Amino acid sequence: MGQIRVRTYASRMEAEMAQGLLETLGIRSSVSADDAGGAYPFSLLGGGARLMIDENDREQAEAVLATLD
Q: pTM for the whole thing?
């Protein structure tokens, strides 16, 4: 299965915090952001930082991230 976007955050920092939570629970994830490698953390270039997960982990990741909302 491929990677899917599970959430979009305003900044890379927010996405990385959520990523850290997922990874402590064994859910692999990555952050995709068009922010010049963090040089422009609130850049409007790419529409935010996208938290990507494996499609098979969607249900578990959604439940975990819902606790942050």
A: 0.81
